[in-house]
Amino acid sequence: MLFNSGIFLQFFAAFLLLYWLARHHLRARNILIVIASYLFYGWWDYRFLALLIFSSVLDYFVGLGIARQTDPRRRKLWLACSVVANLTILGFFKYFDFFILSFAAVMKQLHIHVSPHTLGIILPVGISFYTFQAMSYTIDVYRNEMPPTRNLINFLAYVSFFPQLVAGPIERASHLLPQFDRTLSITRPMLEEGIWLMLWGMFKKVFIADNLDPLVAMVYGSGSYSAPAVVLATVAFAFQIYCDFSGYSDIARGTARILGFDIMFNFNLPYAAASVREFWRRWHISLSTWLRDYLYVSLGGNRAGKARTYINIWITMVLGGLWHGAAWNFVLWGMWHAVGLVTNRALGEKVRQSFISWLATICFVLYGWLLFRARSLEEIVAMTRSFANFSAPAWINSYLLNLTVFTLPLAIVEFWQFKSRNLLVPLSLRPWTRAALQGVLLVGIILYWERNPAPFIYFQF
Question: How is the chain split into domains, by residue range?
Fold first, then answer.
């Protein structure tokens, strides 16, 4: 079920009515959330509900098993059950065919004939998100950072909470799970924030991201490249993926706020970053902090000298790139950002924030998006070589005009947010002014609302 679809609006309206009736009865409320979340997820393909339920129930009992043990080895065995099971599910559905085909390609280069047998596996929506969210719970229990929950319904609600189920943010159990244990007050400021975030997120998706998609597709995959075309298309994609993904995250947080829940902001003006390190503090925050806390730190972090620190950064970013999809361009994207992070750490205080450092960071990030969006190594090479070709295509002026029209609203609002250092600064407007702004957003959404809505990009991850 897509946020940007009529069926979701009907679903959410019906859910809100039932939720309002059950809001003071914790068990009934949480059961309703679980049922609604499973309906929301099963709308894609009900067969994959079994995976979601299995992962949830497994990690619930693993948490209890870890808490009962005092022997460190047995605690590790319980944790291993969770990590191995979740990564096996994720690896099989997401990477089985990829590794089979990659192995066959290597054998072909060695002139060894192999007939690969792929399974044509369908990737369950949101599997990368809910497996990481469930695993973080068992790891936190193992580290004694939180006690295990003994309420299965609450834990099922935590893993499957529909606003952030299929594309995050990847919430921490220590933050979200306790909210299912108490009656939540729904205040006017929460409703105002929720409505604003839902409208702004939907505007970013429907008006900006979906209109930039055809501009990106005009160049990527066309086979006809020049520096101006590739640069503009990459800028368009940078805005597209940001508005698509941050739009989803805004709708997720807004939906949760209307229900009385608090989930994290997943983006904090990432294109204002003046270093690659700062970019990752602002982009997909729930994933970057998950990789830091559960992978980078587990590898040793920066506690074993510079060389080991750099190796840990490389491992973390390569696996982070691979998390995004079973393709070598995602691995290259992760490696590219590893280069940036290692360079940042090596230079340290020598690099000061300035317009030059911001511009260098933007250029670095943009080339990373080229690696991310290209669909083959051959396309990456061809597009990179095109930087030496400065001939502009005939359509360049109209392309630039469309790019400006669809990104200008974002630039205005985000400059306002940056200067005020407040992501919710539009809520500080007077009621009538805020209502007018929201009305403009609503008109833009209605004008570009599609009967066949485009899925969010991160659904494929």
Answer: 6-184, 189-274+353-460
